[in-house]
Amino acid sequence: MAGADRRRALALLACTQFVLILDTSIINVAAPSIGESLDISPAALSWVANAYLVSFGGLLLLSGRAADLLGQRRVFVAGLGVLAAASLLGALSDDAALLITARAVQGVGAAMAAAAAFALILTLFDDGPERHRALGVFAAMAGAGGAAGTVLGGVLTSWLGWESTFALNVVAGIALVLPVPRLLPPGTPGGRERGFDLPGAVAVTTGLGLLAYAVVNAGEAGWSSTPTLATGAAAVVLLAAFVLVEREVAHPLVPLAVLRRPTLRLANILAALWQMSLFPMFFLVSLYLQAVLGYEPVLGGLALLPLCLVVITVASTADRLIGRFGLRAVMGAGFVLVAVGMAWQSLLSADGSFVADVLPPSLLLGVALPLVSITTNVAATLDTREEEAGLASGLVNTSLQFGSVLGLAVLSGVAAARTDASSAARDVALTDGFSTAFLVGAVPALVALLLTLRLRLPAPDAPAPPEASTAAEHRRAVP
User: Fold this and answer.
1) What's the pLDDT band for 215 if we cut at 50, 70, 90?
2) For labeling, which of 132, 336, 446, 450 is most exposed (least CB within 10 Å)?
3) Rounded to the nearest 10 degrees, what angle do helices 262-287 and 3-38 cross at?
């Protein structure tokens, strides 16, 4: 595939990532209007957001492996189709049950599309500066989607109603599918000569889904509540059963030898840790701007655009930074900036301002986000063979998703507990809660920084393994 064709394919895949990340944040702004329009209780309303996260997180690993076995383009198109159909159902929903069902199915489509899109990048771009640039674009669009979701959620809800936030995905899904035959290679499914590990698929999907449910439900039920502990225990049992199944079946869904690779394993842990720190930041900053400083939803979303612009700018230079200073040095610098930025963001005041309290640390975090995102993705996919692209994608996306779910649940809970325990005025109590949450959010970044020192990367001039060379030659031969 020629360079210009690969760039157009990357633009399509990056736009897909933008839409999928947009969907995780846009609903937070539309939620109050949805609750009022459909008369949904606060407990049920939380599941309008959480149903998406549970199915998305639970199905990423299965979706990635399905992309390897059934064909990446096929799974990508199917995922966008499911997302668009579920979004139409959501726009037409007139009660809580139907809307929550639509959100869960949206998560299914998003998991399929996200895993296949990432796998396609690994297939289209060889390891090295070319792939680093592609992952930089991918990370930039993810950051833009997180910020844009807040803006678009406010604009669409205010002007056209909450239903338009779902209708947007219908239009986006159609627009993204139409150019697929021209831009993405058909690929060759790898499952014709091998069986499908159905017991493993059921165990890991159900286990990850229950784990996601336990984490997101803990914010309401409590971490030590019976539902949380029972669901978490069931998830652990199923994931343990999955490991036992993978040791015995002839064609495992996830070959355990892959999980024994130290670089891949540690990189996935680092991916989860940076998401734990940074993903809740968008949500908490937006709440501070609206609940304490009195910003309207649209203005609160626009306030995050400077951060988004910094993400895009830094992501475009990440490949040169990695080439000059090395992957581990850039990764470590990114985690230092995350920890400093989160600690700086904790210095909020109830009578503060956007320019003094939010803008400077958010710009620093905007520098950090693409550095940690791109470097952990690169480390998690080093020497990935073409037939493992979907698996590598599923693993790193699962790590990212569970990091975001766990981080949001923990930091939101910390903020709420600190606010409830305060006897100060409302604005002061809320600010204390947000400040404490940001300070706690620096901890995963510090842990990640220490783990980065243990990361062992191949020497830059080390020859590629035979399998990787074969995969690279095959990718260059794709018409």
Assistant:
1) confident
2) 450
3) 50
